[in-house]
Amino acid sequence: QVQLVESGGGLVQAGGSLRLSCAASGRTFSTYGMGWFRQAPGKEREFVASIKWSGGGTDYADSVKGRFTISRDNAKKTVDLQMNSLKPEDTAIYYCAAHLIPFRSDPGRAGFGSWGQGTQVTVSS
Q: Which of 17, 20, 43, 108 could form a disulfide with 81 if both were Cys (CB 3.0 to 4.6 A apart)?
C-alpha cells in the first residue's frame, strides 16, 4: 500500500488561502490516482477533489470548484491542494488517499484507500 502523510493545515481567516501537501512513499506512487477528502465536526467524510495517475484529469466537489486546485508531482511523489477564497464551512480535517488500483482512467470519487492521518484546516469568520 501507498503510505501518505498530509501537511500544511492551519488557521486562516475567511477569504484567505492555504496549500496542503500529501507526501507519499512507495515506488509505484505515480501509477495511482489520488484524492482529497474532508470531515467536518459531526459530519460524514466527503469528497473534495481527485486527480488521475498521470495528472490532467481532475474532479471537484461543487462546493469547492473554482476555489480549490489539486495537482501532483510524480517525481517528488507529492499531491497538493491549493485552497483559495476559504470559507468557514471549509473547516475540517483534510485527508489524502490513493486509488485502490493503479492506472485508473478516471480521477473518481470512490474506490480510494491508503488514507493519510489528516491535517486540520480551520477557517475563522
A: 20
